[in-house]
Amino acid sequence: MQDQQRVWLWNIVFAAIVFAMGYSVYLASGKIDYTWRWDRVAPYIINTEPQEIAAPGDGTLELGSDGKSLQLVLDSGDDPFIVTEYSTMVAAEGDLIFEGDIIATLDDWQTGPIIEGLIVTIEISLYSLVIALALGLLVGLMRISANPAVRNLAILYIEVIRGTPLLVQIFIMYFFFGTVLDLERFTAGVIALSVFTAAYVAEIVRSGIQSIPVGQMEAARSLGMSYPKAMIYIILPQAFKRTLPPLAGQFINLIKDSSLVSVISITDLTKAGREVVSGSFAPFEVWFTVALLYLVLTSALSWAIQRLEKRLSASD
């Protein structure tokens, strides 16, 4: 009973601290000479305003043969401009239409640039995560190899990558290797993030493998298993369980580091945020929204890895 009361007491203390921090932020925001306009950000997330359908040239508006679609007969003699989907007809049948005039509107929700940037960030992070995990596992195994050449190559790769900033690596990957190999911006960004993260994954894998008692490998070999089989079926599964928490931290860093690819004009979440700020004149609202979306991504990944960790621990 006392333990339960103590838990409730500390939960109340936690809630009070969170409330105090939130209230402090609220008081601080009130001292800034700034008008908060969250409504300016909403259209850049989900745009619910009707789409305007403009005329591509001068012509005469007519109804289609089905009596529903719109057909703009162009004065240039080109094929008619046909509108099959619309909600409201702005111009009337027989009207003379000039280029740029609004013919009709369509009630349809569209994803704004912030959501489109979020999708790009998710794609970059997923591709980079998979490649970094595979490459990091390979380099980690090379790092503990008995072959001096293979081991030294792995050490050189890890030291060079970890000893140079990611931003510099992105520039080199895009402007140098991208030019030589004719890489697209997206591909260059994924490769740079993968190579950078793989260096840290390799060290995590190495430490996980070396934390397993040497006797387990010796026992597996004495039973007739080859070194690769013993590594795959005995050592790596145990090392994976032990390295899951640091791997989770590295993958969360990967999501946050993906914001740096915006320097090579990849319209990820960060670059989309900068573009929205210039158009909405609501910098605080936009950057709070961007930060919240990054928090959602990292929290979802953290939750998924925690579930996987519990499932693996239950299988012991």
From TrEMBL:
<feature type="transmembrane region" description="Helical">
    <location>
        <begin position="154"/>
        <end position="177"/>
    </location>
</feature>
<dbReference type="Pfam" id="PF00528">
    <property type="entry name" value="BPD_transp_1"/>
</dbReference>
<dbReference type="InterPro" id="IPR043429">
    <property type="entry name" value="ArtM/GltK/GlnP/TcyL/YhdX-like"/>
</dbReference>
<keyword id="KW-1003">Cell membrane</keyword>
<keyword id="KW-0812">Transmembrane</keyword>
<feature type="transmembrane region" description="Helical">
    <location>
        <begin position="7"/>
        <end position="28"/>
    </location>
</feature>
<feature type="transmembrane region" description="Helical">
    <location>
        <begin position="223"/>
        <end position="240"/>
    </location>
</feature>
<dbReference type="InterPro" id="IPR010065">
    <property type="entry name" value="AA_ABC_transptr_permease_3TM"/>
</dbReference>
<protein>
    <recommendedName>
        <fullName>Putative glutamine transport system permease protein GlnP</fullName>
    </recommendedName>
</protein>
<comment type="function">
    <text>Part of the binding-protein-dependent transport system for glutamine; probably responsible for the translocation of the substrate across the membrane.</text>
</comment>
<keyword id="KW-1133">Transmembrane helix</keyword>
<feature type="transmembrane region" description="Helical">
    <location>
        <begin position="118"/>
        <end position="142"/>
    </location>
</feature>
<keyword id="KW-0472">Membrane</keyword>
<feature type="transmembrane region" description="Helical">
    <location>
        <begin position="286"/>
        <end position="305"/>
    </location>
</feature>
<dbReference type="GO" id="GO:0043190">
    <property type="term" value="C:ATP-binding cassette (ABC) transporter complex"/>
</dbReference>
<dbReference type="GO" id="GO:0006865">
    <property type="term" value="P:amino acid transport"/>
</dbReference>
<comment type="similarity">
    <text>Belongs to the binding-protein-dependent transport system permease family. HisMQ subfamily.</text>
</comment>
<dbReference type="InterPro" id="IPR000515">
    <property type="entry name" value="MetI-like"/>
</dbReference>
<feature type="transmembrane region" description="Helical">
    <location>
        <begin position="183"/>
        <end position="202"/>
    </location>
</feature>
<dbReference type="GO" id="GO:0022857">
    <property type="term" value="F:transmembrane transporter activity"/>
</dbReference>
<keyword id="KW-0813">Transport</keyword>
<dbReference type="InterPro" id="IPR035906">
    <property type="entry name" value="MetI-like_sf"/>
</dbReference>
<feature type="domain" description="ABC transmembrane type-1">
    <location>
        <begin position="118"/>
        <end position="305"/>
    </location>
</feature>
<keyword id="KW-0029">Amino-acid transport</keyword>
